[in-house]
Amino acid sequence: MTRIATLSDTRNNCHNCRLRSLCLPDNLSKDDLGELDSIVQRRKPVARGAYLFQAGERFQSIFAVRTGAVKTLTVQANGDEHISGFHLPGEVIGLDAIVSRDHPSTAIALESTSVCEIPYAELESLGDRMPAVQHQLVRVMSRELLAEHHTGHLLTRRAAEQRLAVVLLTFSERFARRGLSALRFRLPMSRLDLGNYLGLVPETMSRTFRRLEEQGLVSITGKEIELVDICAMKALAYGNEEARAATA
């Protein structure tokens, strides 16, 4: 039976964590894994609405999401908040602060969330002795940048229905990488937050969800989404040629 995508619990150390393949090198020895595990700080769950860090704070650690979900946002010159991303278990937050050493964005828990905090200075020191860790950090950074660029490109100058289809398919792929259902999943964010991310006002978001449902592409119950016709969703999101390539 396929597991519906929910953001549930994981084990308490790197060796047993079911998400380790998403954020750790796969060629670490047991001793190396134990050394890496020794620098990881596992916080108590962060309550919904609580900050992991705020823009302008001095950068000290990166964070790997274990359970729950996190949104990152920036504040525009006019004071408006813009949500720049949503982060699921196995994904790493705070990488955008490595160069400047100050956080350019704010991270807020979307629901009760557990994270692994990894002090960056200790991670760098460990990486000097364990090249696999250093290589994995570069790989994770590259993966995040590529995903952000790809999604941003797909959302540019597209109609509301296409934008929403792109994001729902992106979540489908991300949940599938975690061994969860690609067709039935729960969105951790509110429609208001999703609309902010997509650049759509709440009324447009409601109409767009309703149109996708009326077309028989999705079934919606609260935050639970079922992709009823994923091929048609891909055709809507990417165009017929890209949809064929995506399903090949």
UniProtKB/TrEMBL annotation:
<protein>
    <submittedName>
        <fullName>CRP/FNR family transcriptional regulator, anaerobic regulatory protein</fullName>
    </submittedName>
</protein>
<dbReference type="InterPro" id="IPR036388">
    <property type="entry name" value="WH-like_DNA-bd_sf"/>
</dbReference>
<dbReference type="Pfam" id="PF13545">
    <property type="entry name" value="HTH_Crp_2"/>
</dbReference>
<dbReference type="InterPro" id="IPR050397">
    <property type="entry name" value="Env_Response_Regulators"/>
</dbReference>
<feature type="domain" description="HTH crp-type">
    <location>
        <begin position="158"/>
        <end position="231"/>
    </location>
</feature>
<dbReference type="InterPro" id="IPR036390">
    <property type="entry name" value="WH_DNA-bd_sf"/>
</dbReference>
<dbReference type="GO" id="GO:0005829">
    <property type="term" value="C:cytosol"/>
</dbReference>
<dbReference type="InterPro" id="IPR012318">
    <property type="entry name" value="HTH_CRP"/>
</dbReference>
<keyword id="KW-0238">DNA-binding</keyword>
<dbReference type="GO" id="GO:0003677">
    <property type="term" value="F:DNA binding"/>
</dbReference>
<keyword id="KW-0805">Transcription regulation</keyword>
<dbReference type="InterPro" id="IPR000595">
    <property type="entry name" value="cNMP-bd_dom"/>
</dbReference>
<feature type="domain" description="Cyclic nucleotide-binding">
    <location>
        <begin position="24"/>
        <end position="107"/>
    </location>
</feature>
<keyword id="KW-0804">Transcription</keyword>
<dbReference type="InterPro" id="IPR018490">
    <property type="entry name" value="cNMP-bd_dom_sf"/>
</dbReference>
<dbReference type="Pfam" id="PF00027">
    <property type="entry name" value="cNMP_binding"/>
</dbReference>
<dbReference type="InterPro" id="IPR014710">
    <property type="entry name" value="RmlC-like_jellyroll"/>
</dbReference>
<dbReference type="GO" id="GO:0003700">
    <property type="term" value="F:DNA-binding transcription factor activity"/>
</dbReference>
